[in-house]
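ARCHIVE CARD
SHELF: 3
SLOT: left
DATA:
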Amino acid sequence: MKRLWYYYIYLLVIWGSFRYFVRLPEVIEELWFKPVLWLVPLFWWNLALKEKISMFGKKWIKTLVLGFVVGSAYYLIFKYKNLQSFNFDANLIGVALATAVTEELTFSGFVAGYLENIRQGKWINLIIVGLLTAIIRLPILFFVYQATGNEILGVVLVALASGVINAWIRVKSGNVAGSILARLGMNLAAMG
């Protein structure tokens, strides 16, 4: 469990510092830097584990159905007043997809799987994933968007809830693909 906290502190410090000191277009940050900074250490850690974390199980239909249903619900909830306002932009879709893949592989895929290996079937695992998902938003909220207290609270609560739901999809199906699909729906609604 100690290695999980080391990895998370690494993410907070490195990603927070990156967000504070580096100002590149979001497309470059999300498509190039975020996957490298987040996933390379994670995959090295997985290689070092005796019991590897499998992120893509056999229940593809179940995970994709759950992901599509939850992603559609996220999209409808976030776009309920503006359903026809989607702006089709390749950069937007690329950022939404890269963010969904990177963050869901990290939290729903690896962290939820790691916690399940330690204590299988515990709701506390989902809550931990949700909290980690919510707290990692703080650097971008503070340093990039300079959000106010109510905005921060709103984003943290939504990230907490979606982190728990997406981790549940992964644990229920044994496959992170549904979590990625659900997160993509949320990202497209929030960014588009």
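SLOT: right
DATA:
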Amino acid sequence: MSGGRVDPFAATAGAGVVLLFLRTDCPIANRYAPTLRRIHDEFAPRGVSFWCVYPDPRTTAAAARLHQSEYALPERALLDPAHRLVAAAGVAITPEAAVFDRTGRLHYRGRIDDRFVDYGIARAQATVHDLRDALAALLDGRAAAPPGGPAIGCLIADLDPAELPP
């Protein structure tokens, strides 16, 4: 994070862009960190760009960098205090992913997988791998299946006008 405005779609010469919506204080998002790293490590070499997006207006660049380091998350991150990327992706929960193809068209939006059944109820392992399957479909030129269920995690709260950056 350089502190300037960054467009994650500007340099999309690869297969597509994944926006991973996270909060530093969301325990469910934090539990997904190893899964997100594995997905990144599988698909980044195949031309998919990954960005961690922090929509909480109170998250500072330093806090986001520390979060990425502590949880070994993909290195590129963006702060989205005005929820521009939240609106573009149509997400409401952290963790939630949005996959865009190389033209900027939304290919997939939804949960990472089905590990979390509900708040406080998790499977030992996921049985459906929604994000991974959506990325495989993107690379194969196929439409992604819709998510098999809702994303479970922390709500991305509506913005208080007083929280908007200048």
